[in-house]
TrEMBL record, chain B:
GO terms for molecular function: aldehyde dehydrogenase (NAD+) activity. It holds the Pfam family Aldedh. The keyword Oxidoreductase applies. The gene is ALDH1A1. CDD domains: ALDH_F1AB_F2_RALDH1 (cd07141). The active site is at residue 281. It is an enzyme of class 1 (oxidoreductase). Keywords: NAD, Oxidoreductase. Residues 41-492 form the Aldehyde dehydrogenase domain. This is aldehyde dehydrogenase (NAD(+)). Signal peptide: none annotated.
Length: 518, 501
């Protein structure tokens, strides 16, 4: 039974094979893990906010407060930036460290996180609401893999020697940029932290990170591990706080060299403007999406239905790359719809600490209300409600798995990012038509196509303007593969070798020599 | 891996606890003295064994099963099966190959003391060197390549026409690896790490003089979780087991580190059999050029350790020290002084800084070359040996001695010394000591050597490629460059109905 539930919850995520489920049982979680750290982490020390203010973090399954957390504001950001700048000083321990030793520290951090998998998974589920089985089997292991991958790059990120014209010896140094501000979201708190820290630290930068106010707890625990494994003080600073105060202070700071933001497109605009208004800090953005998932008539129907379900409903629908426009070719539309509705109706919604649960609560009240608003608009604008459509429990922020059929491209639910368990299924006739409709969006994060035809697969993957295209699969991630958006979905790529570019300043050094020889 | 000074040795030795004196009791009982094939221990097909000696005393340490042609055949079968499409090794995530290499590094760290002791006993190298240099390099090399495994990337390529083209960087297949006795466990890591990182399977023959640490590594390889057949360890002799590997029709690539003479045989064998890919790391007669504007004491010290490290048994040894005329006398005087102060003795005892040569054969060869130096008119300053007034035509200036014998020559001008430094069939390494930026860049560009050190010597690190020009070998080990030697590139081109940029 456990195996069936698990294989439904995450069929084929990042290569975790089915045999692992039965190999080692997931330990029974504590639904009330103790919170050890709830302050600001600056210079390897725990500190109250300068203002002494704090804010509550909520358990979305119950709506209850878990604990208070210190709230960083501009004054705290200033302190953190100072610490990060000092740690980046030319001649500092961090600057003088062997690159391979930076890698070793990241490896040790991965080991420590692996050691504390169960606790971190409990804390993540408590603060975010995602099912514990998923935190344990997906989020934490992916964090470990990401950090190990980045650790391996530390001493392999090589400049070049370059044969320029003239009597010169010319080479490039791949230097760290400096103090990097990083603002991360609440949908994958631990994983987003790893995606940001991994490449930044591997390349030798120092970091001031603002974690989402909805989900600060696991990031703060990881801060304690950062200190435990031996990163020098000031290299990583972690500040829980609000976007408009702490986040904004980072984006407009005159002594932060780069800002990396993952979150909504709306806030992405603000970050980019803030950079232009302050010191032109380098900006990378990972924003929203309205990703098309295209099902051709020759697709394997069972696979397509299951993957499309997973593509939308995974993580309570709270994925930037969610396949939220499912385009189904007309000849198979009816069968696809029927099977999808059956699957959605069988989705188990409930207490995230229960091993049988596939879907937990939405992260907070704001999201909860917003999603319900979109469901209303769907009904109002004439989409056909096929299942779900309402609240799923008396307390907490649970929403029923919802499917709309007969969706038209112009409807709000077809254009705006819902970030909830609401699936839109649209009909199409031809290949050329669907590619055009799929591209008719300001977003461009991900896309997928299900087909057996090699030519169709290639046509669509070339034609769609999206940073990641999946063929006969969805949500396949690897630390090795770059991820990022076209258009309003962001700029820059995270992960893979490409991810290192955004944390590097290239310096060209040219030395006069008496006589150049090849 | 910076060579520690003597003072650092004795400080460090105080930190090494648990030094097990019982290792000095002979005969040494080895847990593993068999041939390692398919993650199992086998007796030799012929029934023969090889003696393993302690070069410090000449005593027999133990006997080890001796692999020959039939054993090589068995190993190749095993390695080939492990390389089949669909095998656990072929289907494994690249990141998991990396994880296995990292686990192996962890195990080497755990067994560092034992491995260093075995290494010192078997090879005669100073125990503290084995512990702080050889073993550290071994761990770092395994970790470095552990990190590369899932970063070996092909490309997608914009060819002309309606095609989608990409390359796969595939492993070559079954790789034969033959390693020498001067840095046994470190050479073992230098060979298996890039090979396994790229997904190959391996048959490795350690030197007959020094099989012990290789056999312990085989245990750790099994413990770390490498599938059977991925690494096979065959102690044996060159003319039998080594030759069988070089000639084998089902080995896809051979990597050899050793003498130039045997390197030529390997190349011929490859041509004679199945045109297996060949990489070679051979000998050197490396020039170390000291200009008058250097830091003299520092240059003397670097030149000294550049020659005498590891009892002079380094392919990289700076065995032709070219010193600029105006500082020549002073340099020779200080070098002789340094050499006279060397403490020779039992490599397991702290305070000793030079152990024995590896075996009788090397011992005799070195003495013979020393005699030739005297006969041909060089000035013998002292022993451990420093010769001054050496001219380029003398045998000690041309042939690789591989022993604690330093040659110091005089030069006058930059162009002269470059020309003389390059006048050799070898081309492995070189050193340049000067404070002048122009001289440094000019000379380092002009020298025909795979590694050039400026104001240092023997400064090596896993990230940096290592290998020779000319008859010092071909191909590079270490660094990203080594991956090319263990990769076969496949270009795949798919017809599509419409190509778009």
């Amino acid at each position: 039974m456990l195996r069936v539930v698990l294989s439904r919850t995450f069929p084929r995520i990042s290569g975790i094979s089915n045999c692992q489920y039965s190999a080692a049982a997931i330990p029974v979680p504590s639904a009330q893990p103790e919170v050890h750290y709830n302050k600001l982490f600056i210079n390897n020390e725990w500190q109250d906010a300068v203002s002494k203010r704090s804010f509550p973090t909520i358990n979305p399954a119950t709506g209850e407060v878990i604990c208070q957390v210190a709230e960083a504001d501009k004054a705290d950001v200033d302190k953190a930036v100072k610490a990060a700048r000092e740690a980046f000083r030319f001649g500092s321990p961090w600057r003088r460290m062997d690159a391979s030793d930076r890698g070793l520290l990241l490896s040790r951090l991965a080991d420590a996180i692996e050691r504390d998998t169960a606790y971190l998974a409990e804390l993540e589920t408590l603060d975010n609401g995602k099912p514990y089985a998923v935190s344990y089997r997906v989020d934490v292991p992916m964090v470990v893999k990401c950090l190990r991958y980045c650790a391996g790059w530390a001493d392999k990120w090589e400049g070049k020697t370059i044969p320029i014209d003239g009597d010169f010896f010319c080479y490039t140094r791949h230097e760290p940029i400096g103090v990097c501000g990083q603002i991360i979201p609440w949908n994958f708190p631990l994983l987003m932290q790893a995606w940001k820290l991994g490449p930044a630290l591997a390349t030798g930068n120092t970091v001031v990170m603002k974690v989402a106010e909805q989900t600060p707890l696991t990031a703060l625990y990881v801060a304690s591990l950062i200190k435990e494994v031996g990163f020098p003080p000031g290299v990583v600073n972690i500040l829980p706080g609000m976007g408009p105060s702490a986040g904004s202070a980072i984006a407009s700071h005159m002594d932060v060299d780069k800002v990396a933001f993952t979150g909504s497109t709306e806030v992405g605009h603000l970050i980019q403007q803030a950079s232009g208004s302050s010191n032109l800090k380098k900006v990378t953005l990972e924003l929203g999406g309205k990703s098309p998932n295209i099902i051709m008539s020759d697709a394997n129907m069972a696979e397509a239905v299951e993957q499309s379900h997973f593509a939308l409903f995974f993580n309570q629908g709270q994925c930037c790359c969610a396949g939220s426009r499912t385009y189904v070719q007309d000849t198979i539309y009816d069968e696809f719809m029927e099977r999808s509705v059956e699957r959605a109706k069988s989705r188990v919604v409930g207490d995230p600490f229960n091993m049988k649960t596939e879907q937990g609560p939405q992260v907070d009240e704001q999201q909860f209300k917003k999603i319900l608003g979109y469901i209303s608009s769907g009904k109002r604008e004439g989409a056909k409600l096929m299942c779900g459509g309402g609240v799923a429990a008396d307390r907490g922020y649970f929403i029923q798995p919802t499917i709309f059929g007969d969706v038209q491209d112009g409807m709000t639910i077809a254009r705006e990012e819902i970030f909830g368990p609401v699936m839109q299924i649209l009909k199409f006739k031809t290949l050329e038509e669907v590619v055009e409709r799929a591209n008719d969006t300001k977003y461009g994060l991900a896309a997928a196509v299900f087909t057996k035809d090699i030519d169709k697969a290639h046509y669509i993957s070339s034609g769609i303007r999206a940073g990641t295209v999946w063929i006969n699969c969805y949500n396949v991630f690897g630390a090795q593969a770059p991820f990022g958006g076209y258009k309003y979905s962001g700029n820059g790529r995270e992960l893979g070798e490409y991810g290192l570019d955004n944390y590097t300043e290239v310096k060209t050094v040219t030395i006069k020599v008496p006589q150049k020889n090849s | 891996f910076n060579i520690l000074t003597y003072q650092q040795h004795s400080d460090a030795s105080n930190q090494v606890k648990g030094f097990n004196q019982s290792f000095l009791i002979l005969p040494y009982t080895l847990n593993r003295d068999l041939i390692f094939i398919d993650n199992e221990w086998h007796e030799s097909c012929s029934g023969r064994k090889m003696p393993v000696h302690n070069p410090a005393t000449g005593d027999l340490l133990c006997e080890v099963e001796e692999a020959d042609t039939e054993d090589v055949d068995k190993a190749v079968q095993s390695a080939r099966a492990a390389f089949q499409l669909g095998s656990p090794w072929r289907c494994m995530d690249a990141s998991d190959r990396g994880l296995l290499l990292n686990r192996l590094a962890d195990l080497v760290e755990r067994d560092r003391l034992r491995l260093a002791t075995l290494e010192a006993l078997d090879s005669g190298k100073i125990f503290l060197m084995a512990y702080f240099v050889d073993l550290m390099a071994t761990v770092k090399t395994l970790r470095y390549y552990g990190g590369w495994a899932d970063k070996i990337q092909g490309k997608t390529i914009p060819v002309d026409g309606e095609y989608f083209t990409y390359t796969r960087h595939e492993p070559i297949g079954v790789c034969g690896q033959i390693i020498p006795w001067n840095f046994p466990v470190m050479m073992f890591a230098w060979k298996i790490a890039p090979a396994l990182c790229c997904g190959n399977t391996v048959i490795i023959k350690p030197a007959e003089q020094t099989p012990l640490t290789a056999l312990h590594m085989a245990c750790l390889i099994k413990e770390a979780g490498f599938p059977p057949g991925v690494v096979n360890v065959l102690p044996g002799y060159g003319p039998t087991a080594g030759s069988a590997i070089a000639h084998h029709m089902d080995i896809d690539k051979i990597a050899f580190t050793g003498s130039t003479a045997v390197g030529k045989l390997i190349q011929k064998a490859a041509g004679d059999s199945n045109l297996k890919r060949v990489t070679l790391e051979l000998g050197g007669k490396n020039p170390n050029i000291v200009f008058a504007d250097c830091d003299l004491e520092y240059a003397v010290e670097q030149a000294h350790s550049g020659l005498f490290f590891n009892q002079g048994q380094c392919c990289l040894a700076g065995s032709r020290v070219f010193v600029e005329d105006s500082i020549y006398e002073e340099f020779v005087c200080r070098s002789a002084e340094k050499a006279r102060n060397k403490v020779l003795g039992n490599p397991l005892v702290p305070g000793v800084d030079q152990g024995p040569q590896i075996d009788q054969k090397q011992f005799d060869k070195i003495l013979e070359l020393i005699e030739s130096g005297k006969k041909e008119g060089a000035t013998l300053e002292c022993g451990p040996t420093v010769f001054s007034n050496v001219t380029d035509d003398m045998r000690i200036a041309r042939e690789e001695i591989f022993g604690p014998v330093q040659q110091i020559m005089r030069f006058r001008s930059v162009n002269e010394v470059i020309q003389r430094a390059n006048a050799t069939h070898y081309g492995l390494a070189a050193g340049v000591f000067t404070n002048d930026i122009d001289k440094a860049l000019t000379v380092s560009s002009a020298l025909q050597a795979g590694m050039v050190w400026v104001n240092c010597y023997n400064a090596m690190s896993t990230q940096c490629p290592f290998g020779g020009f000319k008859m010092s070998g071909n191909g590079r080990e270490l660094g990203e460059y080594a991956l090319q030697e263990y990769t076969e590139v496949k270009a795949v081109t798919i017809k599509i109905s419409q190509k778009n940029s």
